[in-house]
């Protein structure tokens, strides 16, 4: 995907140099709709499915999209085959750079990781990224130069303090035990409703556990782990849906705007969501069942 040319016009998207960055730019373009909203789960389900189809159709990939099981190596992510820096990993930590402070970690009052600099081991050592970074723009509005070309290295700052607290099996079990879609959405974003001191749910916690590039709300797909992280998000939603088909398969809550402002109408199964150049618009009803519509997949 890094070697294939983009389909987006570089005149309009100067920071898009490859097919992979078509996906990054699309995520940036819809960020203010697809997070902390009623379309978060469905949009990202389809987004990673489109990524898998591109791997199959354009790169001759014959496998399926893996998922990052947060809990398996929550005690020490550097021992995970995903992040141990081996030739079959997604690369390891970044070089030590104590000047790189991860805002999300600082907000949790936890120690920073030991990395922060350029990823230096494994297949993505020296990977160049071009979009962002976005430092939580005012009111989360897309800046005018959102697609400017800003070449730099992929960075990581692996943080085991975050993974131990917010990505462990107890957290996963509580998420799957959510009583309804409101509870599920709150728990995956903010932690259990009954435990407000937790501060973070596993979705944002996993983003900040790898440092600035994956934490970037807009440009986070620049870190290759994004697709596997959202594979796990989709797995959790799928398993939760399947545990009570009658009440959960078609359950929706929220609007089509970030943080569900009261001025935005609630989403329904008829709500249309967009994917830019990646795909035609889809109704949410098309994104609710991994065994229906365009899909045919399941999770172990």
Automatic annotation (TrEMBL):
User: Which top-level group of life is the source organism from?
Assistant: Eukaryota
Q: Does the keyword Metal-binding apply?
A: yes
Q: Which GO terms describe its molecular function?
A: metal ion binding; oxidoreductase activity
Q: Does the keyword Metal-binding apply?
A: yes
SUPFAM superfamilies named among the record's database cross-references = Di-copper centre-containing domain
Keywords, A to Z, come to: Copper, Metal-binding, Oxidoreductase
Q: Which InterPro entries match?
A: Di-copper_centre_dom_sf, Tyrosinase/Hemocyanin, Tyrosinase_Cu-bd
Where does the Tyrosinase copper-binding domain start and stop, copy by copy?
Answer: 223-234
Q: Would you tell me the protein name for this molecule? A: Tyrosinase copper-binding domain-containing protein
Q: Which organism is it from?
A: Penicillium salamii
């Amino acid at each position: 995907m890094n070697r294939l040319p983009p389909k987006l016009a570089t005149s309009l998207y100067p920071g898009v140099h490859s097919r992979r960055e078509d996906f990054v730019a699309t995520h940036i373009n819809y960020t203010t709709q697809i997070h902390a909203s009623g379309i978060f789960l469905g949009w990202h389900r389809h987004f990673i499915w489109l990524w898998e189809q591109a791997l199959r159709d354009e790169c001759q990939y014959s496998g399926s999209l893996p998922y990052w099981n947060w809990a398996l190596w929550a005690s020490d992510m550097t021992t995970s085959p995903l992040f141990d820096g081996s030739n079959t990993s997604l690369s390891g930590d970044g070089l030590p750079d104590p000047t790189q402070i991860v805002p999300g970690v600082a907000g949790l009052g936890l120690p920073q990781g030991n990395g922060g600099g350029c990823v230096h081991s494994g297949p993505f050592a020296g990977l160049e990224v071009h979009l962002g970074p976005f430092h939580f723009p005012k009111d989360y509005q897309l800046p005018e130069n959102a697609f400017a070309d800003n070449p730099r290295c992929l960075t990581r700052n692996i943080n085991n303090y975050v993974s131990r607290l917010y990505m462990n099996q107890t957290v996963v079990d509580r998420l799957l035990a959510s009583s309804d879609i409101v509870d599920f959405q709150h728990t995956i974003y903010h932690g259990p409703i009954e435990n407000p001191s937790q501060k973070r749910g596993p979705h944002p916690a996993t983003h900040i556990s790898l440092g600035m590039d994956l934490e970037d709300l807009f440009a986070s797909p620049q870190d290759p782990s994004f697709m596997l992280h959202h594979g796990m998000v989709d797995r959790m939603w799928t398993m939760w849906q399947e545990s009570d088909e009658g009440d959960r398969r078609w359950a929706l809550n929220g609007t089509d705007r970030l943080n569900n402002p009261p001025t935005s109408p609630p989403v329904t199964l008829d709500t249309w969501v967009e994917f830019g150049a990646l795909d035609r618009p889809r109704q949410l009803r098309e994104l609710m069942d991994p065994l229906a519509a365009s899909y045919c997949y399941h999770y172990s």
